[in-house]
Design a protein that fits this description.
Its cofactor is pyridoxal 5'-phosphate. InterPro entries: Aminotransferase_I/II_large (IPR004839), Class-I_PLP-dep_aminotransf (IPR050859), PyrdxlP-dep_Trfase (IPR015424), PyrdxlP-dep_Trfase_major (IPR015421), PyrdxlP-dep_Trfase_small (IPR015422). By secondary structure, the chain is α/β, with parallel strands linked by helices. The chain has 2 domains: about 140 residues, Aspartate Aminotransferase, domain 1; about 230 residues, Type I PLP-dependent aspartate aminotransferase-like (Major domain) (Aspartate Aminotransferase, domain 2), CATH 3.40.640.10. It has 14 helices and 14 strands. The chain binds pyridoxal-5'-phosphate. The site of pyridoxal-5'-phosphate (PLP) has 14 residues, from helix 5. Pyridoxal-5'-phosphate binds next to helix 5.
């Protein structure tokens, strides 16, 4: 059977392939975006896990928008006004898919930063969106390029990760947040704010969300994968009711609703008295690992390689002198370290500047030190 045209153009995920190769026990993987499984708050889930056998109602079909007590909790936590609603989704990735399927016709323009999150490129590719990119600076998207793209392309939406971007770790400045919100209102573009790393800040002050400045022109994607557990597969989408109702319709067709026992488990976890303490523990753990990776990179890498400092998230972006980054990643793998080369994060690979994405959350400090030593040996020989 011939596969759909929309799927024919989608590349299989390079990261999944490299992750498969990186399971070799001699390889230190800085390739994935995995939280450390030792941080999973199983103890904080235990009271709900023990109570669930008596909660028969969660084993019945549930409401498409989600499990009532969880939705109430999230409405309160996110301080949603009456005009807004929340939907529980199967990971925030499903939220993105629902947005794309509810709003994008083939050929509709979506603006993204370059580089961009690979999973978003796959989702927008599947609905045959016209993906137009604007370059990213140290403080967020290039605002002139963004306004020109808004003028020239009349896009439906601008998708972005303003807090600790995947892959670059960039966190948008306050001025950029305000300016982007203003542009979205001015040009009537919906802002899709993907915020899976927002709570993983380990230094500096939290900034307001971009959507705080344009609440009527934005949809926010929330993930619990990095702060609780990705295997639960529960995320959430928030936005004004008129933006989100079409998503409920698409979700009915997609999976009726997300797993209710898993939503109940997440609800129990989020309202546990020690959840805040758990959050500060993972922030401290990841801060320590980031400091190890960052200082080793600065100590050991050749001067032609530049490392960007980050205040949170899971990734460090290392820019390199001109080279074939795919060949380099292959060579690094043969030398026992897995990384992701920059071109996979661009809808048009030819626009990529040479760089590597390194993850610091899923390796122990001694492994990070060893990984940088392997990395610099190969880079120095280039
Ligand atoms: C930017 C971004 N958005 C969304 C996701 C998907 O998250 P979830 O596990 O909530 O589906 C990821 C996962 O790595 C991500 O990096």
């Amino acid at each position: 059977m011939e596969i759909a045209h929309s799927l024919q153009q989608i590349q299989s995920s390079y990261i999944r392939e490299i992750l498969a190769a990186a399971t070799d026990k001699n390889v230190i993987s800085l390739a994935g975006g995995l939280p450390d499984e030792k941080t999973f708050p199983i103890d904080l889930m235990r009271p709900t896990l023990e109570a669930i056998p008596d909660m028969v109602e969660v084993f019945q079909y549930g409401a498409t928008a989600g499990y009532g007590p969880l939705l109430e909790h999230l409405t309160h936590t996110f301080k949603l006004p009456d005009s807004h609603m929340v939907i529980a989704t199967t990971g925030s990735q499903q939220g993105l898919d629902l947005i794309a399927r509810a709003y994008i016709n083939p050929g509709d323009t979506v603006i993204m930063e370059a580089p961009s999150y690979l999973g978003a490129m796959q989702v927008f590719g599947l609905v045959q969106a016209n993906m137009v990119t604007v370059p990213q600076t140290e403080s967020g998207p290039d605002l002139q390029a963004l306004e020109s793209a808004f003028k020239a392309e009349a896009p439906k939406m601008f998708y972005a990760v303003p807090d600790f971007h995947n892959p670059t770790g960039v966190c948008w400045s306050l001025d950029t947040r305000k300016a982007v919100a203003k542009l979205c209102e001015q040009y009537n573009v919906a802002f899709i704010e993907d915020a899976p790393y927002r709570e993983l800040r380990f230094s500096g002050e939290a900034l307001p969300m971009v959507s705080d400045f344009c609440p009527q022109h934005s949809i926010v994607l929330r993930s619990f994968s990095k702060i609780a557990s990705p295997g639960l597969r529960i995320g959430a989408v928030t936005g004004k009711v008129s933006y989100l109702e079409p998503l409920v319709k698409v979700k009915q067709g997609a999976d009726l609703h997300s797993s209710v026992p898993m939503q109940a488990l997440l609800h129990g976890l989020l309202k546990h008295d020690n959840f805040e303490l758990h959050m500060s523990k993972i922030q401290a753990l990841y801060h320590e690992r980031y400091q190890v990776l960052n200082s080793e990179l600065k100590k050991q890498l050749p001067e032609s390689c530049k490392v960007k400092d980050v205040d949170g998230g899971m990734f460090v972006w290392v820019t390199l002198p001109e080279c074939d980054t795919f060949a380099l990643a292959k060579q690094l793998l043969a030398n026992g370290v897995a990384v992701v080369p920059s071109p996979v994060f661009y809808p048009d690979e030819s626009q990529a500047t040479p760089a590597l994405r390194l993850n610091f959350t899923n390796a122990e400090p001694n492994e990070l030190v060893e990984a940088v030593s392997r990395l610099s040996t190969v880079l120095k020989a280039l």
